[in-house]
Design goal:
With 607 residues, the chain is of the alpha/beta class. 50% of the residues lie in helices and 16% in strands. Helix 17 runs antiparallel to helix 18.
Length: 607
Amino acid sequence: MASPREPDASPRPDPIVGPHALREVAPGQRKLVAVLAADIVGYSRLMEANEEDTHKRVLLLRATIIDPTIAKYRGQVIKNTGDGFLAVFDSANDASQCALAIQYGANAMSAEEPEHRFISLRMGINVADAIFEREDIYGDGVNIAARLQTYSEPGGIVVSGAVADQISEPAGVSVVDFGELHLRNLSRPVKAFGLRIERSPKPVADSPVRAQGRPSIVVLPFRNLASQDDAYFAEGIVDEIIHALSALKELFVISRGSTLGYGSEIIDVRAIGRELGVRYVLYGSVRRSGGRLRINTELNDTESGNIIYSDRYEGELSELFALQEQISTRVVTTIAPHVREWERARALRKHPQNLTAYDLVLQALSYLYHMDYDSFSRARGLLQQAVTHDPNYAPAYSYLAYWYMFRVGQGWSTDAAADSIEASRNASKAIERDGNDALALAIDGHVHSFMFKDFETATRLLDRAITVGPNSAMAWTMSSATCGYLGEGPTAVLRAEHGLRLSPLDSHVFWHEHLLSQAHYINGNFDEAAAWGWRAAKHNERFTSNFRILAASLVAIGKFVDARQIAQRHMLVDPNFHLQAWADRTPLNATTRDNLRQRLKAAGFPE
């Protein structure tokens, strides 16, 4: 995008195409245009609440803001629907400036209205080689604009990469990189960006404790007894149960990521108990058929191999969350009967208002854990859709924050600073909606620490994350990182060890191992730091942060040949790395930073 500026007060005339050229396109002809698709958020709800009032206000919005603004930017309304419109423009810049002006106007019109009467729009823009007919236009590019609109948050705009390349970035408008969205019925992904204006509608620590003395449990993936396409649904039910159990300090709960390799038909509970160090194993099956749901569960004792209980839960799909609560409550009252009722209630997530949003989050998680870029991109689009369906559902924002944080960590980000801000923004939105969301609190804390060096805010958020999510591996490990940045080596080691204990077989285990290596390095345990660094390198051969700590640890113990080999591997992954730029951005304290820099220089890292 070009340099920032405000929406034009008086749009410039197009030097090639006249202001009425769009109206002169004959039926059946093609023309390259910018297509703006818009939809009124919650139109059916507004009409149901007060049909006559809503109709009048929508007509007023069109007459005073939408139609005059489209005319001002030389656009043409192709068709009006009851809850939206489709318009075309001669240039992408005109379309985007018009969309922003309409959003500003719509927000101003509803500024004094109570939340339930807020009229806001979602918009999508794409450049399309469209086929014109008398009252409509057609083509893949038109469909893309309409589908991008469904990914927009209320009051926002989503544009394709083709549009983003042609427009200016207005001041006061944040531009969010959505990555590649996989739109319905399209074989190729579409690069997309969000334009978000300031005023948008409002949507209605302790030290580690060892597992000894606490009931320990792992919840294995449930078998899906319906179509294979429903596998994500079974995984999602497990995720909700784990979340409810993990928030209880009386239990020790292994993370979801460490269970993904146990999805086979034959389950040896004793072997699982030995491998993961847990006393209990819960697993089961799910069948979803039409509007009905059946869940079978089995709780096993890993020491004896005996089945403690076997239950069946049946009900309507709309009763899903009540069934999940029954399952988690049954587990708790069996293995930790002393846990008080209010503690169990606090541990439960707030239910989504929209089952579609819940389903979209489950689908996103199934892609997010695959750890490849294509699946990762699909997850972003699904989470964005979940937000549009239910702006109050905290987990959708938590996992969006995780998506941006992980995107930066994997080196897939084209703008790490902007993505870090977006991670923090989404985490804050999750916390606003559910103050007990440990993942959101941990991510927000880590972003403040790692990217912004605001350690006071980070510590407060991370301590809160551990309090409300004592079994959150991410919270413990991220807290270890911040303790390390502050030079608190012993605490950093303890917290990283606890995070790794909670997530021993996670696909992200390299990250936990790396931060334990970093904690040992900061604490002066260079042999231990090198040992954990080697383990992390084995699990991820492109993780540059780990290579740096490993190389410095090897120099510290006199293994210069190994250190230089690690430096060479680092440069193959990141050939543009220089120590000065790294030193300027690292959150490590001055003493640790300077010593680390000298050791990295000795290993062969370029100054």
